[in-house]
Amino acid sequence: MNSRVKISIQGLISSKTTVRTFALLLGEETGTRRVTIIIGPMEAESIALKLQEITPPRPLTHDLMLNALEMFNIQLSEVYIHRFENGIFYSELLLLGNEHSEVVDARTSDAIALAVRTGCPIYMDKAIFDEFAIEMEETTVENEENDKEDNENPPTLEELQEQLKQAIENEQYEEAARLRDLISSRSTNK
């Protein structure tokens, strides 16, 4: 088996260069190196909602997939990002069923959206990780988030919580995730 690096989600940032794309920061668990993967808005929304523990009123695609797997007694055991080709990261899901296992090809963004729902480990091929990883200072991401908050008349926490409630009721999950991040950031800064 190839050497692998266990990774986890370190951040999810809206891309400043391309509209409606997001940068998913994946980092090694024992260091400060990060790999950035560009993902679409639907997968970003799905990941952000789960990370922020926001439950939509109806299941999203990734929730539906896991519900179907559970109905058939199939467990997602791990996600493995195993290849990079033509600008695309390729992933596999290891599924375990009644004394049977299968490896299934998946888009990396979908695989990670499923992994955050199950808590299963995420691995990346070490050679790929070493090639694309960059050393990051821990404060870089925090400073970017704090800069977004600085404006002249920020809403109160109560106003933000009401906006979050409305966004969830209106199924505006991307906005709900943004508001939840802002509320969380303000709560920890107090």
Automatic annotation (TrEMBL):
Residues 139-152 have a biased composition (Acidic residues). Residues 139-158 are annotated as: Disordered. SUPFAM superfamilies: C-terminal UvrC-binding domain of UvrB, Hypothetical protein TM0160. GO terms for molecular function: nuclease activity. Residues 154-189 form the UVR domain. Keywords: DNA damage, SOS response. Residues 4-136 form the BFN domain. It holds the Pfam family UVR. One of its GO terms (biological process) is SOS response. This is BFN domain-containing protein.
